[in-house]
Amino acid sequence: MSANNKLRILVPIKRVIDHQLAPRISSSTSLKIPSYSINPFDDIALEESLRINEKNKGLVEEIKAISVGSIKCKDLLYKALAKGCHQAKLIETPVTSTILQPLSIAKILKKEVEKNNYNLVILGKQAIDDDNNNTGQMLAGLLNWPQICNASKVEIVDPVNGEIQVSREVDSGEEILKSKWPVVITADLRLNTPRYATLPKIMKAKKKKIEQEKLLETDDLNNDQSLKVLSYKEPPKRQPGIRVANVDELLSKLKEVKAI
Amino acid sequence: GSTLAFIEYNAKQNVLTPASRSCLQAAKKLNQPITALLLGSNSDKVAIKDTPNIVSKVLYNTDLKFDHQSPEYISPLICDILNKQNFTHFVIAANSVGKNILPRVAALLDLQPISDIVDIESDKQFVRPIYAGNILATVQSEQPKKLISIRTSAFPIDEEETQAKVDNAVSIPTQEYQFEIPSDIKSTQYVGSSTVQNEDGRPDLNSAKVIVSGGRGLKTKENFEKLIVPLADAFKKVPKYNGVAAAIGATRAVVDAGFVDNSLQIGQTGKVVAPDLYIACGISGAIQHLAGMKNSKVIVAINKEEDQPIEEIADFTLIGDVNDVLPELTEKLG
């Protein structure tokens, strides 16, 4: 295996609402988030990077987890280290800044990729807060790399020539693509089941160093005011329904509302 | 302003996909001329044969490289058109093709896309669901071009408007868009795909008027097939549905248990649907499932257990055993 084909993997992870909980609207322009955790799809991406390392001895040179956000993202990064990531980095956003849009995140990640020569970026297909499903594709576009979204299976097929095969979920079923790295892959639900970080491992990880960088207000975050949230609202509530006693009553009700 | 709409077609029948027709339906709400863009080896034929009435112009390009909807090839082409022809809006369906392409196009243009919208309030103001549809955000874009993906279930098709007229070939200008794919593009290589076969004309989930969906209450794969499939087929006999069967859907639990293929999953991580009639069988109603179907017009829940979350959003709930209720319903529909 030639040294230049070793994998250097970057795994961007986002701190989001706990997936079992729903946010509340506290005013028309702000939301209350009850509790936070790692974006579940990013957790799957992280797991996949660890599995690639475990399955392909000597192929992976480095796995770095990176998060862009508040100082509180460090909790996620310690967990990533506890699970087996080699490095972790926090890019701290200014307290006053608005929520960064995917375009800005993709630009920040691009810088990191180029600075440290990563050749594989694996991240969740979307974050479960803003549900954009943008960042991976945007990063691939900025880097002029191939992209494979919604991965359900990832295999290193040719470590010598740096080739990877990925099955991805599409509306009609499944599509299989091959790519040389460098490449961006986004993880879908069925790629794997992430491992847990055990408490002793987290305690140990907390002794490791997390690389920290501050994002300045003056940094190139141009577009974050260009897509403004004007207001939040709850979707209209459905009218309460009724119970029907049997199939006949169901059919007559469905006829009444012209559903059949 | 003017709108460029990315249009997909069914390569076997050379007709527009339902998702693309919904996309045109959304584009119409922007109230400006719509140019349709079709790509791939049959795009010239479709452009001539199946151009819908609400389109004012069609661009196509028959390069084989566009046949698998590779975002690496398609994105620079779209950027080229958007830059040279001064479109103010670009719309694409928020399906697996659109989600793959739109963000890449936006990044190349240094713009933030507006993803998965469910409503258009003005040419710069849009509504998009966030937090699995628990919240609707109204967003405003001041960007020079608005790049938008459309949640197709929120823009039902008007048969008249998105149907081709026989004489459209002469009345709507159709033009090949010349484009040379840059030589430095690194793309993935297409290996193959497996499609879930839709037996005898069963509609796909995104365009179905009726969906019969099964959950954990079905217990086994055999039971799912024995109870859900005949019920879905029975809708062929309902005059309202013109001989078309219902589509079949499933919950995440049932997909994970291997009863049906992944692509039939309805929910936050699967498909988001809004048919006229949704029949939830043996489904308790986990938040992530409700996120995918709660905008259906009429919801029926058939469930053994009382007071499950599905009942809170169902119009009609029948408490009963799916093993008894579904065969009876199947029979009486006929």
Describe the structure.
Chain A is of the alpha/beta class and 260 residues long. In chain A, 26% of the residues lie in helices and 33% in strands. Chain A contains six helices and 15 strands. Chain A has helices at 40-55, 74-83, 102-116, 135-143, 199-205, 247-256, and strands spanning 7-12, 15-17, 24-27, 30-32, 36-38, 60-69, 87-92, 120-124, 147-158, 163-170, 173-180, 183-187, 211-214, 227-233, 242-244. In chain A, helix 2 (74-83) packs across helix 5. Chain A is globular and about 70 Å long. The N and C termini of chain A lie far apart (64 Å). Chain B folds into two domains: 3-176, 3-Layer(aba) Sandwich (Rossmann fold); 199-333, TPP-binding domain (Rossmann fold, 3-Layer(aba) Sandwich), CATH 3.40.50.1220. Helices cover 28% and strands 25% of the residues of chain B. Chain B has ten helices and 18 strands. In chain B, the strands form four sheets. In chain B, strands 7-11-6-1-4-5-12 form a seven-stranded parallel β-sheet, with helices on both faces. A five-stranded parallel β-sheet of chain B has the order 15-14-16-17-18. A three-stranded antiparallel β-sheet of chain B has the order 8-9-10, with no helix packed on it. In chain B, helix 3 (71-84) crosses helix 4 and helix 6 runs parallel beside helix 10. At the A-B interface, helix 3, helix 4, strand 9, strand 10 and strand 11 of A face helix 3, helix 4, strand 7, strand 9 and strand 10 of B. Strand 15 (242-244) of chain A pairs parallel with strand 18 of chain B, so a sheet runs across the interface.
